[in-house]
Design a protein that fits this description.
This protein is of the alpha/beta class. It has 21 helices and 21 strands.
Length: about 575
């Protein structure tokens, strides 16, 4: 068994433990006295039978009989001796086979298990801890956030109130600490005054309590809280939150921007000095059916397609890559070049937008946000909702079940350019996506996923674009942590920038094989404050330069593993 300082510390840190140790010593003393007494009696009884044995032999006989080994090489022949043997045997069974194991478990094994458990789920971080992230809830958003933090080697700790739950999470590889999320002492023990960020994704009321509690100990540590209700934003800010994140609102606005008939122009999702990264659905534009070489976007607009997203699959494009109807183009260029691109190609989305209403399935927080965005842009839309209590504007609402063909016909399913499936239940979203795809193979379908694992299922069901509530929230939190103004592209697609690893310094992009090894594309290189957009593959990468890359979560993970080990 492995004994360590944690066990010794545990033995002497509480009065009850010290009392248990004293009881253990008493038990061992009684057992020793009993063995000595039996050895003495054995010596005299053997002498009465005319046999002489040494005192060592007496101890040997006592221990073999008490432990029930009973080798039989030394025996009594008188009834008195045999009766004594029975007494020694029974007392041995009681002391050695019953009380001793019980004592061992109670005073050694159980404390060792508890000490090991406390090491897995501590209540306090080491005094030298700093620059860590404190997370107050384990939910889909923080699950995705923890994965990002681990990939980028950020230290974090998750507060868990239930000790057993903490051990379960530890076994899953999560770094946990036990404590109450509304107790100042918890945050004091977790060195909140030296933390890089506190992330609270609980209910609005609990988040408010957490913000007040943390502010009792530190006015400087950044606090990021989520808010379900728009009315909670001001309250959370007054409580001390540095950033209030309304993920449902972000999700709704993002889905609206991705919709044909939503925002007509390319959607800017990243900015690095004069470099802009934008996304643009190719649907209904003359680009559909062309290869990248045939599109001549770089020659005409100085815009480069750095990625193509097609129904859950992201690819780094080549000259022969073909643009499909369902493709979403990821563009890189200057503001001037993207404006020139939009002046030509946004026209096709604008024409489509003014004709027929877009369908929004579900009138929850996400659906209402999408409807509000369309209303602001005067885009026609219809919301399908089966709960009469959710109806807000009868002109834009169709009451009924989206799984009923009669309801869909009332919502002009035959003419709708796009449908957004926004219910809070992933199973319902998968079902409705498959149903809508079977009715309209040409319909643009966008869907929301609550859990990351259901994104691929929604794509298989027929969704053109899926955005995960969890991944979107995690990306927004991570962006705030890094003090950047970059949003998530498509689901699982990110822009990230890193100092050039030592293994790549002096090489050019062609020699680095970044694209082949990681499936990421270098969209720019920053050298001495100068930004080279869409750099030449033969340009050497200087030491100290900064790479700006685009790729999937898996691609980012591959890059970090391959070049920053």
């Amino acid at each position: 068994m492995k004994y360590n300082p944690a066990l010794i510390t545990y033995f002497f840190q509480r009065e009850s433990t010290k009392r248990n140790v004293r009881q253990l010593l008493k038990f061992l003393l009684i057992l020793s006295v009993l063995v000595i007494f039996y050895s003495i009696v054995f010596h005299f009884l053997m002498a009465a039978e005319g046999k002489n044995h040494s005192w060592i032999t007496g101890f040997y006989w006592t221990l073999t009989v008490m432990s029930t080994l009973g080798f039989g090489d030394i025996t009594f022949h008188s009834d008195l001796g045999r009766a004594f043997s029975i007494v020694v045997l029974i007392s041995g069974m009681i002391f050695l086979l019953t009380l001793l194991p019980f004592t061992f478990i109670k005073f050694f094994y159980a404390p060792w298990i508890e000490a090991e458990s406390r090491k897995k789920a501590p209540r306090e971080l080491p005094p030298e801890t700093r620059g860590h992230i404190i997370i107050t809830s384990y939910d889909p958003v923080t699950m995705a956030l923890i994965e990002k933090l681990e990939n980028h080697k950020y230290d974090y700790v998750l507060i868990v109130e239930d000790f057993k739950r903490a051990l379960d999470l530890y076994d899953m590889g999560i770094r946990v600490a036990v404590g109450d999320i509304d107790d100042p002492e918890t945050y004091r023990r977790l060195r909140v005054d030296r933390a890089a960020l506190v992330v609270a994704t609980n209910r609005d009321e609990i988040n408010t309590n957490i913000a007040f509690t943390v502010r009792e100990l530190s006015e400087q540590v950044p606090i990021l809280t989520t808010a379900d209700s728009p009315y909670s934003e001001d309250i959370l800010e007054m409580a001390g939150s540095s950033k209030v994140l309304r993920i449902y609102d972000i999700l709704g606005r993002s889905l609206a921007a991705w919709t044909v008939g939503g925002d007509c122009r390319s959607n800017i999702i990243g900015r690095f000095d004069e470099l802009l990264i934008a996304e643009f659905p190719a649907m209904d534009t003359p680009l559909v059916g062309k290869t990248l070489a045939e599109s001549k976007l770089r020659e005409h607009f100085d815009v480069t397609i750095v990625g193509i997203w097609d129904r859950g699959r992201f690819t780094i494009p080549r000259a022969e890559s073909r643009i499909e109807r369902t493709s979403v183009l990821v563009l890189a260029g200057s503001e001037k070049s993207l404006n020139a691109y939009d002046d030509i190609y946004s026209f096709y989305h604008l024409c489509r937008r003014t004709l027929d209403p877009i369908l929004i399935v579900g009138s929850g927080r996400v659906g209402d946000t999408i409807a509000q965005r369309f209303k602001e842009r005067e885009s026609p839309y219809l919301v399908i909702e089966k709960n009469p209590a959710m109806l807000q504007d009868e002109e834009h609402y169709v009451l009924g079940d989206a799984a009923d063909i009669r309801t869909l016909k009332s919502a002009w399913i035959e003419k709708a350019p796009a449908a957004l499936v926004t219910t809070h239940d992933d199973a319902t979203n998968i079902y409705l996506t498959k149903y809508l795809r079977s009715l309209r193979p040409d319909l643009q379908i966008l869907s929301r996923a609550n859990l990351l694992r259901n994104v691929s299922t929604l794509h298989r069901a027929g969704a053109d674009f899926v955005m995960s509530y969890a991944d979107l929230g995690a990306s927004a939190i991570f962006t705030f942590l890094k003090n950047e103004d970059t949003r998530m592209l498509a689901q699982g697609l990110n822009i990230f920038h890193l100092r050039i690893p030592e293994s790549l310094a002096g090489k050019n992009l062609a020699q680095s094989k970044i694209r082949e090894v990681t499936d990421c594309s270098v969209v720019a290189i920053r050298n001495d404050g100068m930004l080279s957009i869409n750099p030449d593959p033969n340009m050497p990468i200087r030491e100290g330069a900064e790479l700006i890359l685009i790729g999937t979560n898996e691609g980012e993970r591959k890059f970090l593993q391959a070049f920053q080990a």
